[in-house]
Amino acid sequence: MNLIKKFLFIIFIFCLLLNVDTYKFRCKGFFRPKPPCYLRIDLEKTKEFTVVYDSIVFKSRKKYFLELYKSRFQNALFYENLILFGIKVFDPEAIEYICLKLGIKYLYPTHILFFNYKSYGSKKNYKPIKRFSSLRKTM
Q1: How many CA atoms lie within 13 A of 96 on its CB side?
Q2: What is the mean pLDDT of each successive set of 10 residues along the chain, which is 139 residues long?
Q3: How far apart are CA 119 and CA 22, in angstroms?
Q4: Which residues form the signal peptide (predicted)?
Q5: 89 with 56: CB under 8 angstroms?
Q6: 102: closest CA among 30, 24, 44, 34?
Q7: Least crowded by CB within 10 Å, which of 5, 23, 37, 62?
Q8: 3-state secondary structure string, the chain?
Q9: What is residue 65's predicted lDDT score, i.e. its pLDDT?
Q10: How many CB atoms lie within 10 A of CB 67?
């Protein structure tokens, strides 16, 4: 009986490891979440891609987002272009919609970070998407 319990426990842990989400939500506070918060999304998974795609309102922007997504294997600057696209498109209402669809409590301000799951360990790949961040650099 003890062997069966151990076997079922190992299967349970293995199933948990296979069902890892490809998005992570972090805020500053240790005990209580405090803004600013960061939502890291891997677009390689279909669930997260469809949620982000549905949050874009205009058809022309959806088409451009699809072109960026399809060129991710040919274009080395895919995530750089996606960050620039996200600065213009993802306002707080769109980010709130994404959080709602992913089942995350939205806190203002929340910034979206797109990453490649294979390079998740490298923090150099994370660049927050903030509205008007390009204006701050020029001033």
Answers
A1: 6
A2: 76 61 76 82 76 85 85 73 79 88 85 64 48 47
A3: 13
A4: 1-22
A5: yes
A6: 24
A7: 5
A8: CHHHHHHHHHHHHHHHHHCCCCEEEECCCCCCCCCCEEEEEECCCHHHHHHHHHHCCCHHHHHHHHHHHHCCCCCCCHHHHHHHHHHHHCCHHHHHHHHHHHCCCCCCCEEEEEECHHHCCCHHHCCCECCCHHHHHHC
A9: 85
A10: 11
Sign of the four-CA dihedral 41, 46, 49, 51: negative
Contact between 23 and 99 (Cβ < 8 Å) = no
Tokens of 105: 């409590």
For the chain, the domains span 22-138
Query: Which pTM was predicted?
Result: 0.63
Hey, what are 129's tokens?
């998407």
Close Cβ partners of 79 (under 8 Å, ≥ 6 residues apart): 114, 115, 116, 125, 127
